């Protein structure tokens, strides 16, 4: 999906919970906060964390200059299962 | 003596191949960008048709006018409990609106896309669903897209 949008000329960045998977599937740009699948953009109702992740993602969108990099983000959420 | 016993032997284990790079350059500053969201998390409006949890290559257009508390998830491939509490976990639409309001980005796009990743007909995703979503974003003048998946 990301590749299809990118191929149409629109830059993209993916927020991934599983960095090895997005690397394998050929992501152009990716960030990886320490989150479980299902909360890629941060803990539920934690506005501060979600804003931080989205802002950092947008900053990496502009900053990354080569395809295939997965940038770790300094946010952590461990779901209570 | 040659050490090769059988020529051209291949592993019988399926090894996924990473495709060649694809890259669209960023041409604007963030404050001049209209940002859209695309998610593989199975997000859609509660009035829209649910995804087939066994595998579904279709997608749902999510307009920016749909209130975030009327969005829901149908996806069989991950624990939905966090995203059921707060859609922003996978579809940070409220956060994008706030960033547009404070001027960090120019605007939130009028349309977004929800689909169900983690399975389904990959050929259809690659050749139909992906290009259809990309076409919508091009037509709506989207400058960049944030995805959540994987």
TrEMBL record, chain A:
Official protein name in the record: D-proline reductase, PrdB subunit
């Amino acid at each position: 999906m990301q590749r299809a949008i990118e191929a149409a000329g629109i830059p993209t960045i993916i927020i991934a919970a599983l960095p090895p998977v997005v690397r394998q599937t050929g992501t152009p740009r990716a960030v990886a906060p320490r989150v479980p699948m299902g909360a890629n953009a941060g803990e539920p109702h934690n506005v501060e964390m979600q804003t931080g992740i989205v802002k950092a993602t947008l900053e990496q969108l502009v900053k990354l200059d080569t395809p295939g990099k997965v940038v770790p983000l300094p946010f952590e959420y461990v779901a209570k299962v | 003596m040659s050490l090769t016993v059988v020529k051209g032997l291949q592993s019988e284990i399926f090894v996924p191949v990473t495709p060649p790079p694809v890259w669209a350059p960023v041409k604007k500053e963030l404050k001049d960008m209209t940002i859209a969201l695309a998610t593989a998390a199975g997000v859609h409006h509660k009035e829209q048709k649910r995804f087939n949890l066994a595998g579904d290559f279709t997608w749902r257009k999510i307009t920016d006018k749909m209130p975030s508390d009327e969005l829901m998830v149908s996806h069989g491939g991950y624990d939905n409990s966090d995203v059921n509490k707060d859609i922003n976990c996978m579809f940070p639409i409220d956060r994008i609106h706030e960033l547009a309001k404070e001027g960090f980005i120019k605007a939130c796009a009028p349309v977004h896309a929800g689909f169900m990743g983690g399975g389904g007909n990959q050929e259809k995703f690659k050749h139909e669903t992906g290009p259809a979503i990309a076409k919508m974003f091009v037509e709506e003048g989207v400058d960049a897209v944030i995805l959540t998946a994987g």
